[in-house]
Amino acid sequence: MNRICCVLFIGLVGGLLCPLSCVFGAGTNGSQTASEIFQSVESGFDGVISMQYTAERTVKTDRMSIQERWRFRWQSPGCFRIDCQAPVERLIVVNETGLWEYLPSKKQAAHTDFAGMLPAERERRIAGVCAPVSIDGIRLGQYVEMAKRAIKVVPEGPETDGLLRIEGKNPRYVIVVDSKRRVVIKTEIYDGDGTVKLRTFAADFLEVQPALWYPSRVEATYRRDNGYVTTETVLGDIAVNLPIPTGFFEFKPPAGIGVIERGGADREK
User: Fold this and answer.
1) pLDDT tens digits along 16-60
2) Which pairing describes strands 150-155 and 108-113: parallel, antiparallel, or unpaired?
């Protein structure tokens, strides 16, 4: 998750008669294809088996401003813990067997047992819980489908800078990648009528381990039915592959806490 808790793009596969430039992403005259660029960006995370950071985010609309704070810790294959401090204290713990949500202010916890649950339903439950603390603009998400919709790969500014602009269609998207650091810099995601619905900008990159760069600041703008929402997320204490104590991704409800058991209809028969 991030995905290691967030997924940015869900694309539609092209038709069976899609030309090769569509299947593999645009790229001519020996230049990299969109697929190669996206794979290069994502491959930087191949050796990451654990990750943690703190986050402070400001969320603004025309009528309000909210401060959010949390700490994120993740370990392969699928364990993570999110300690939310503001605007509401909340704990989220996920491991191979289930999902816990704990609200100290309400003295209440909710538990979802993954036993027999279909993978798609499990992902849906986890994504729903993580949505408030996901950070768009860092990972590419379903980049294979996105690469199939690519129509153009061009330098963004001087070629020596290593910035590449990838454009796609149906619906339109624009991604700017730093090919030297193998990171996403900018994204623009459009809906079917050509209106931008998400725009992100990542900056202040840190080399958190050799050849792996991670942003310490991400700005995003989202279109909503009643206007736009802007966010600025500042990350700190970013670390990868540090040992995490055994039992850290377990949760035992404190005494006197009410527990809600959440089942699911989509389970294996």
Assistant:
1) 222 323 333 454 334 689 999 999 999 999 999 999 999 999 999
2) unpaired
Return d(Cα 40, Cα 179) in angstroms, integer.
8
The answer to whether 34 and 150 are in contact (CB under 8 A) is yes
Parallel/antiparallel/unpaired status of strands 183-190 and 196-209 = antiparallel
- The domain ranges of the chain are 20-262
Q: How far apart are the first and last CA of the chain?
A: 27
Full-model pTM: 0.84
71: which strand partners?
A: 54, 83
Topology at the third CATH level for domain 20-262: outer membrane lipoprotein receptor (LolB), chain A (2.50.20)
| 219: helix, strand or coil | strand
Report H helices in the chain.
Answer: 20-23, 34-43, 119-130, 143-148
218 contacts 135 by C-beta, under 8 angstroms: yes
Which residue, among 5, 48, 8, 67, has the nearest Cα to 234 in the 3D structure? 67
Q: In whole angstroms, how far apart are CA 236 and each of 52, 144, 190, 206, 218?
A: 9, 30, 30, 10, 12
Give bridge partners of residue 88 from the DSSP assignment: none
Strand ranges, E, within the chain = 50-60, 65-75, 79-86, 90-94, 98-103, 108-113, 150-155, 163-168, 173-178, 183-190, 196-209, 212-224, 227-240, 258-262
Structure tokens at 213: 């760069």
| C-alpha to C-alpha distances, 119 to 21, 76, 111, 267, nearest whole angstrom | 33, 16, 17, 9
